[in-house]
Structure to design on (202 residues):
């Protein structure tokens, strides 16, 4: 996939605009994968980005959920075999982010001590962008806004009742999108900043 937004993303914008570019890339990739309703399949997303990509499970070091590398036959995505289905979906969508943003080679360093702080920071930024891509592809804000509205008004009552109601909502939304609750929580936070901006723009 090539385009001005992706080109800019590859140049590594440092301002807040990079998050919007990542959102844009995720939406474009999702559209290209031909999916229209959640839960979105991250493997289809990968295929839409590279028909030659393979996605396979592997024994990976602890705290490394996925690795993306380029082979002569195309991109190879390894995910950690022990991951549960929900976390595996996120890991594959994160790997799709590496493909979409044109960043195949490097992952969170296996031995951080080998990297100077600047490289370490760059690696962390890259991983953060791919996490953002995964969240945007699996939980598009339009869909989230619709599902949140479908849940109706929040419970009233004491603090504990409201808190339990909030947790129930996160669970239900997590079931719709098949993502971890913390991803839903983060996307709800982003709903106000990005979605409003998108729908307000002419
Ligand atoms: Zn990564």
């Amino acid at each position: 996939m090539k385009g001005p937004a992706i080109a800019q993303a590859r140049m590594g914008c440092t301002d807040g605009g990079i998050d919007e570019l990542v959102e844009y890339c995720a939406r474009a990739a999702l559209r290209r994968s031909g999916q229209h309703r959640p839960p979105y399949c991250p493997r289809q997303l990968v295929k839409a980005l590279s028909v030659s990509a393979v996605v396979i499970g592997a024994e990976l070091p602890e705290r490394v959920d996925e690795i993306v590398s380029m082979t002569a036959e195309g991109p190879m995505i390894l995910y950690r075999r022990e991951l549960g289905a929900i976390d595996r979906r996120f890991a594959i969508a994160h790997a799709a982010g590496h493909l979409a943003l044109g960043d195949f080679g490097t992952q969170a360093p296996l031995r951080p001590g080998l990297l100077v702080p600047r490289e370490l920071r760059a690696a962390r930024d890259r991983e953060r962008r791919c996490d953002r891509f995964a969240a945007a592809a699996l939980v598009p804000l339009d869909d989230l806004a619709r599902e949140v509205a479908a849940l109706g008004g929040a419970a009233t009552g004491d603090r504990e009742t409201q808190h339990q109601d909030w947790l129930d909502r996160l669970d239900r939304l997590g079931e719709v999108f098949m993502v971890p609750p913390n991803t839903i929580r983060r996307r709800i936070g982003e709903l106000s900043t990005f979605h409003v901006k998108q729908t307000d723009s002419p």
Remarks:
- The domain at 1-138 is CATH 1.10.10.2910 (Arc Repressor Mutant, subunit A).
- The longest strand covers residues 74-80.
